[in-house]
Amino acid sequence: MREIRIGKNEENQRIDKFLRKYMAKASLGFIYKMIRKKSIKVNGNKIDNDYILKYGDAIQLYLKEDTIESFIENREVRKIKRTFQIVYEDDYLLLVNKPYGLLVHGDSQEKKNTLINQVTGYLYAKGEYDPKSEKTFVPASVNRLDRNTSGIVIIGKNYETVQNLNQMIREKHHIRKFYLTVVKGQVKSCGELKGYLLKDERGNKVKIAEKEENGKDIHTMYRPLKTNKDYSLLEVEIITGRTHQIRLHLSAIGHPIVGDPKYGDKSINQVMKKKFGLENQFLHAYRISFEKCMGNLKYLEGKTFEAPLPQRLKEIEQSLFSER
Asked: Which of 65, 222, 228, 304 has its CA 20 to 30 A from that of 95?
């Protein structure tokens, strides 16, 4: 029998979710079966799958030790060169400026050099995170950027912070997220875009529907900062944060982002590649504003943080909008 004591980084989550992280190689069906058969208890008592763990709870696993060990993934901190910049940091969270070309989380092609792995390595070196002393917690991002979108990513350093950040993001306008982008054509006035996002399995894309039709609502605001007859520099605020939302919404109104290989204009993309070497979307998450904060993050209320355009995008902006 193994006993697990619940600490601050494990409390306030369902036991089935905790156990799926603790025994990552075990199926959810197996975990449910063990709970049902009373092979997993809390404080010596039978519990349901949705039991919410409390600080100080003791989980008893009435399983063979080698069985438990076979289900646990070896978590180690990888030594990777740090390529992100720090925008802001305190005891609870980290705001980083992610460069383009870096995945936030791993995929089938890249599992090692990711933003999260770089962050855990950074925090490990500072003595703020050690996987050997944590039962399940890993520093986590609460907003995601595409591989080739640069800008601010919010990282929670402990479970309470991650919970509060996730709740603040779910509550619209608690955390406001702004982007800078250059699009095709002249945009003369501010705009508001709404619709529903549907997955399009062909080419790993998404598309917009005017009616819900099993899609997720998307809401985007934009305002022009600079414009000429060919291009416009926009500030974009996302009210919802869906996959490819900005890229798709702007393309749908005839103003695709320059350099965007999925939703962009091929002829303009060729010009951008030839003239500037740009092979990805001109999109940068440049500002985060904490409007209303919860729990241990109340001190952030009213604060705004910015990450300037990367030099390569700044040079493109200056060239496109210089006086002719």
From this structure: 222
Tokens for 132, please give them: 């050997």
What is the CB-side half-sphere exposure of residue 291 using CA atoms within 13 A?
Answer: 10
Q: Which two tokens stand for residue 50?
A: 């949705």
Catalytic-residue membership of 146: yes
Q: Residues 66, 146, 200, 217: which is the catalytic one?
A: 146
Question: pLDDT of 189-244, one tens digit each?
Answer: 999 999 888 887 666 778 887 777 778 889 999 999 999 999 999 999 999 988 89
Query: CB atoms < 10 A from the CB of 16, how many?
Result: 17
Q: How far, CA to CA in Å, does 297 sit from each of 1, 41, 76, 90, 166? A: 38, 33, 29, 11, 12
Task: Give tens-digit pLDDT for 236-291.
Answer: 999 998 889 999 999 999 999 999 999 999 999 999 999 999 999 999 999 999 99
The answer to whether the beta carbons of residues 114 and 121 sit under 8 Å apart is: no
pTM summary value: 0.90
Query: Look-up: residue for tokens 């406001």?
Result: 176
What is the torsion angle, in degrees rounded to the nearest 10, for the CA atoms of residue 138, residue 140, residue 145 and residue 148? Answer: -30
Nearest to 245 by CA among 308, 179, 191: 179
Work out the mean pLDDT of the chain and round it to a whole number: 93
Q: Are 142 and 162 in contact (CB under 8 A)?
A: yes
